[in-house]
Design brief:
4 helices; mainly alpha
Length: 76
């Protein structure tokens, strides 16, 4: 019983909840920045990914880093 009380106090502590909320906010914010970057720059960067073969997509670092282009291939 004592362990359950201690765990519940730890889990519902305002400091713990603040840290968890801050981490979640940071992840959401970084994802929104990545999406905004992709929306702005897909026309310039994704043609190289579209023209690359499957082997190049797997082995070439310059192309494999562009895997975020997959959702934008139909717009090119």
């Amino acid at each position: 019983m004592r362990t359950l009380i201690m765990l519940s106090l730890l889990a519902f502590n305002p400091i713990t909840m603040g840290v968890v909320g801050g981490v979640q906010w940071r992840n959401d914010f970084n994802a929104s920045l990545a999406k905004a970057y992709a929306d702005r720059n897909f026309r310039g960067e994704c043609p190289r990914y579209k023209e690359a073969s499957t082997w190049e997509r797997w082995t070439d670092v310059r192309v494999s880093n562009l895997r975020w282009c997959k959702p934008y291939l139909d717009r090119i």
